[in-house]
Amino acid sequence: MNNESILWINSFTVQCEGVAPMTCLQVQESESPEPGKWGNFYSRIEGFTFEAGYLYKLRVRKEMLEDVPADASSIRYVLVDVLEKTRDPKININDIWAVTAIQGEPIGKSRDGQAGPLIEVSLSAMRVMGRDGCNNFTGQITEFDDGVIEFGSIATTRMMCRDMSVPEKFNSAMRQVKSYRLEPGQLVLLDSDGNEQIACRKVD
């Protein structure tokens, strides 16, 4: 049995677990994509070449296969047509950001000369990492879509610096982040009420 359907492809891939660790497209099978409804796609689409940073709307043909191995998909996906390919501005969050302000207060130099907080966003790994002004940190991005970003538990190293005021304020603000606003060269992380928690500039 063969049939055609609309498949949306998100603008970045993620690490996922199939039979072994692999990289997955994120897809929605619908006429219009919905925020937060992306699912991992463990197969391939014959005839389709993915380019990161673009949102795709595809028409694909699905062919039901018989007598496939237990670890293989029973559906073969074949590209019929690329209906849309548009640059996705949210991919620009995938960068390194220097923190310029926390909860509206500009970041100044610490008393012991420590460098200010730095945030690196990796969409392919769905991780956030960097330094808080004293310690290195890393954590999972648990939710990400247009204007939405949430972090899981964030692990940090355990070094004590003479001035811990900025790291403590930064880590507290990171726990409040639920959304973001992205502008050219600027990233602002917001809480659930839209209050600014962390303002950043792109690192050149």
Describe this structure in words.
The chain has 204 residues and is mainly β. The model has no long low-confidence stretch (mean pLDDT 91). 5% of the residues lie in helices and 51% in strands. The protein is built from one helix and 16 strands. The N and C termini lie far apart (52 Å). The protein has one helix at residues 165-174, and strands at 2-9, 14-17, 21-28, 39-41, 45-46, 54-64, 75-87, 96-102, 105-106, 118-122, 127-131, 136-145, 148-156, 179-183, 186-190, 196-202. The longest helix has 10 residues, at 165-174. It folds into two domains: 2-87; 91-202, Lipocalin (Beta Barrel), CATH 2.40.128. The strands form two sheets. Strands 8, 9, 10, 11, 12, 13, 14, 15 and 16 form a nine-stranded antiparallel beta sheet that branches. Strands 1, 2, 3, 4, 5, 6 and 7 form a seven-stranded mixed beta sheet that branches.
